[in-house]
Write a structure and sequence with these properties.
- The chain has about 525 residues and is α+β, with helices and mostly antiparallel strands.
- It has 3 domains: about 240 residues, no CATH class; about 45 residues, no CATH class; about 100 residues, no CATH class.
- It has 13 helices and 23 strands.
- The radius of gyration is 33 Å and the shape is flat.
- About 25% of the residues are buried.
């Protein structure tokens, strides 16, 4: 069904089957909720004006779940929204204050939220420009971008190109454009310059083959010399992709099931509507067939010809009228199938939620974490892709632009726990740690005169238990308002590869990822 519907879309000649531009355009339509807009007929249209039957794939679903939008919002919120926003950490409080001052007014986290949402199609670009100490950030859809990389995966050039109407381009300062025509807006972000070109008519140029006319070239409109030595942009690519420079769409595997859900929901909805006004079926000769209102509603008095007895004694001409009603079993079955397709689709993506009905007893905070476990695993994976692979490089480039005295190699992101422990969870943790640090008396042993009862060493040392408790309290995320805890270790700054040097492994990795000040040296027993 996905291919049948997408094949009905109209694309330029240069955007042939399998081209990156075509694929990303379709994925953008899925994300925007406009995937069916090109279909001419509504779902309730069964026949054309000429009487031809319209197949389902030629109609727009009347009910849409829009799974790509739902999943993209859900995952993006767990990265850069509300209590999930990470903190930028450095080797000292002073440097952190400098970084905070530099990023003030950039709206970095809303921009990264938009990048994660738009990047769910496979990839996305974020650019920045610094003017008079002001920083402007911009998110660009992958279909609008043509990146070029070096052998190490660093950006050498990022070309932006999208089709715009005359009025939009005039608002950007371009003049002498033909009214009512469409143009390509083209801009290059390079190592030392940002170059914007004069708009090119839609039919004269394309991002696949360039100009139609041999020898034609772009005309420079404006040039901004930044001389940074690097491209003021980042390119974020989702894992799992097979066609560079784009990754795999977050919800790509669930597209067929998502489309099936839309059509099943529409059919079930239509069945329910029909059941509210079923078709009238008559048998016999209607005497008042031309009465006003008969064709508009079944709630009308019908007069049938009287029945007569035939030569063989059988009754002839007896009239009858019935409403062709449904039992509702079909609609109920369709909704059950929709729920199954929804579950399978979310499992394919990795954001499925456990069935609460399968969990006996009251739900604790830990139980709620278990319910969302798959969704959290996906969010943690995307924290690496859009955090360490997106937000952090972008922040480092901005800092290098504004203050070269800051060592960006010693900056990292500190993510909060997705679920903070409840007071009940903390009581259980405290009680468990009290048992773990308490020496255990040897079973059956008796104290001799003047000596205590022999004991077994505790399971944990006090420092380790304290570190575990502080990690679960997640104090590092709250240290802007609670106490004056140091934001990070003064040496042995963790690198991108991670590890557990001078740290204790916990549920969320080394404790410096949760609360950097904690360092515990374990003694050998």
């Amino acid at each position: 069904m996905f291919k049948k519907i997408s094949d009905k879309m109209e694309f330029p000649d240069w955007a042939g089957e399998g081209t990156r531009w075509r694929k990303l355009t379709i994925f953008d339509k899925l994300l925007d909720g406009t995937f069916y807009n090109h279909l001419k007929f509504a779902f309730y249209d069964e026949k054309t004006a000429g009487g031809d039957f319209i197949p389902l794939e030629g109609r727009r679903p009347s009910a849409q779940y829009k799974l790509p939008r739902y999943v993209s919002r859900q995952v993006s919120r767990k990265l850069f929204a509300g209590r999930h926003i990470p903190k930028v950490r450095a080797e000292s409080n002073e440097i952190e204050k400098k970084i905070s001052a530099l990023l003030t007014g950039t709206h970095i986290w809303p921009v990264m939220f938009e990048a994660a949402y738009r990047g769910s199609v496979g990839s996305v670009a974020v650019t920045f420009r610094v003017e008079d100490k002001k920083i402007g950030l911009k998110v660009w859809r992958a279909v609008w971008c043509s990146p070029i990389f070096d052998d190490f995966g660093d950006l050498l050039q990022l070309r932006i190109h999208y089709i715009a109407i005359t009025n939009d381009l005039a608002a950007l300062g371009f003049k002498d454009l033909l009214p009512g025509r469409k143009y390509w807006f083209i801009r290059d972000y390079m190592m030392k310059q940002e170059v914007t070109y004069n708009p090119v008519l839609e039919d004269d140029w394309n991002p696949v083959h360039g100009f139609r006319e041999p020898g034609a070239s772009l005309v420079v409109a404006t040039v901004i010399d930044h001389n940074l030595g690097f491209v003021p942009a980042i390119w974020i690519c989702n894992p799992g992709g097979v066609a560079a420079p784009d990754g795999a769409a977050l919800w790509e595997d669930a597209i067929p099931n998502s489309i099936e859900m839309d059509y099943l929901l529409s059919q079930a909805s239509r069945g329910a509507r029909y059941n509210c006004a079923p078709q009238l079926v008559t048998r016999g000769v209607i005497l008042n067939e031309n009465s006003e209102g008969l064709t508009r509603t079944p709630v009308v008095h019908l007069a049938f010809a009287a029945a007569q007895k035939g030569e063989d004694g059988e009754m002839l001409g007896e009239g009858d009228a019935k409403l062709l009603e449904m039992t509702g079993a079909g609609a109920e079955t369709a909704l059950k199938l929709v729920e199954a397709l929804k579950k399978f689709a979310l499992e394919q993506i990795g954001v499925v939620q456990k069935d609460l009905s399968e969990m006996p007893g009251p739900l604790s905070g830990r139980a709620m974490e278990y319910v969302d476990e798959d969704s959290h695993d996906t969010a943690m994976q995307w924290r690496n892709t859009y955090g360490e692979g997106g937000a952090l490089p972008l922040i480092c480039k901005i800092i290098q632009t504004l203050d070269k005295t800051i060592d960006v190699s010693k900056i990292w992101l500190q993510w909060p726990r997705i679920y903070q422990p409840t007071p009940g969870d903390l009581i259980n943790i405290v009680n468990a740690l009290k048992v773990a640090v308490t020496p255990i008396a040897v079973e059956g042993a008796k104290a001799s005169e003047g000596e205590s009862i022999p004991t077994v060493p505790p399971l944990l040392e006090g420092d380790i238990a304290s570190a575990y408790l502080k990690a679960n309290l997640d104090l590092g995320i709250l240290d802007d308002t609670v106490g004056t805890a140091s934001p990070g270790p003064e040496d042995d700054i963790p690198n991108a590869a991670g590890g557990e040097k001078d740290g204790v492994m916990g549920a969320n990795g080394p404790f410096w990822r949760v609360y950097p000040p904690i360092k515990v040296k374990q003694s050998n027993r």
